[in-house]
Structures are given as structure tokens and as C-alpha cells.
TrEMBL record:
Record protein name field: Ribosome-binding factor A
Organism of this sequence: Rhodobacter aestuarii
Assembly and binders: Monomer. Binds 30S ribosomal subunits, but not 50S ribosomal subunits or 70S ribosomes.
Entry superkingdom: Bacteria
Coarse class of the protein's main subcellular location: cytoplasm
Gene Ontology, cellular component aspect: cytosol
UniProt cross-references to Gene3D superfamilies, sorted A to Z: 3.30.300.20
Gene name as annotated: rbfA
PANTHER family, A to Z: RIBOSOME-BINDING FACTOR A, CHLOROPLASTIC-RELATED
Listed GO MF terms: ribosomal small subunit binding
Keywords on record: Cytoplasm, Ribosome biogenesis
Homology family: Belongs to the RbfA family.
Functional note: One of several proteins that assist in the late maturation steps of the functional core of the 30S ribosomal subunit. Associates with free 30S ribosomal subunits (but not with 30S subunits that are part of 70S ribosomes or polysomes). Required for efficient processing of 16S rRNA. May interact with the 5'-terminal helix region of 16S rRNA.
Compartment list: Cytoplasm
Classification via InterPro entries: KH_dom-like_a/b (IPR015946), RbfA (IPR000238), RbfA_dom_sf (IPR023799), Ribosome-bd_factorA_CS (IPR020053)
């Protein structure tokens, strides 16, 4: 089989990125407008952070988080359960918005990006790390002068 001459590496292709962004926007709009007929799901404000389609575009992993912060484990599981319960209806909305041959199967995961970002900020604000960064900057300044 011929390789795609425009895509090299292990990252997603341009088509995967475009399809993922279209799915993300469609799901965000559907959830924001409350078009899903499930009161449990409409009660929660959900942020769709990222959608990663598989290379064949038949499966899309949707990373979701509650709007405005982190949930406890029990609430996050309730949110995922509500999304998984309504996967068929959400997939139908995505299929209407797209011109693909197949509507991708949606798989929902908790988006932990914001939690990792908070942890990174905490690490960088640590006194020892700040001292190491300042020492490295001083070493680079001396190297530039010499």
C-alpha cells in the first residue's frame, strides 16, 4: 500500500484534526443547546476539550470535563454514564453535521488536561524549582558574556 506523501510521523493527519474539530464543535453545540432528551445530561454543563479520531475515522475518543472546574470521582462517573447512555443520539447529531461515509463511534473519557496543568503550575511555583530556574538563567547570562 502506498504511503501518504504529505503525512509523515506518528501524529494525527490533517484530516483527523479537521474531523476531530468538527465533531468537537458539533458535540459542544448539541450539549450547550440541550438537544439531547435526557434531564440528567442537560443538568450538567460539559466542556468538550478534544476529540481524537482513529486513523480510519470510525472511532472518535471524546475528552470531556465539567464546565468551570473539576468534579469528584462520583460526579465524573455520573457525567460519563449519562453521555454513554445517550451515545446513539449524540452520534446521530454528529452524523447530520458531517459528510463522512460512516458516523464515528463515540467513546467518552474524562479530560485530565486541566488537572495536569494545575499540577505543573504547583511544581513550577515550588521554591526549589524557582531557585534552579534562576541559577540556570544566571549561567546562560554568563555564557553569553564570555
Amino acid at each position: 500500500m502506498a504511503k501518504n506523501r504529505f503525512h509523515s510521523g506518528d501524529g494525527p493527519s490533517q484530516r483527523q484534526l479537521r474531523v476531530g474539530e468538527l465533531i468537537r464543535r458539533t458535540l459542544s453545540d448539541v450539549l450547550m443547546r440541550g438537544e439531547v432528551h435526557d434531564p440528567d445530561l442537560n443538568r450538567i454543563s460539559i466542556t468538550v476539550g478534544e476529540v481524537r479520531p482513529s486513523p480510519d475515522l470510525k472511532v472518535a475518543t471524546v475528552y470531556v470535563a465539567p464546565l468551570g472546574g473539576s468534579l469528584g470521582g462520583e460526579s465524573a462517573e455520573a457525567m460519563l454514564a449519562a453521555l454513554r447512555r445517550n451515545t446513539g443520539e449524540l452520534r446521530h447529531h454528529v452524523a447530520k453535521a458531517m459528510t463522512l461515509k460512516y458516523a464515528p463511534d463515540l467513546r467518552f473519557r474524562i479530560d485530565e488536561t486541566f488537572d495536569r496543568l494545575d499540577e505543573t503550575r504547583r511544581i513550577f511555583s515550588d521554591e526549589t524549582v524557582q531557585r534552579d530556574i534562576a541559577a540556570r538563567d544566571d549561567d546562560e547570562d554568563e555564557a553569553d558574556l564570555g
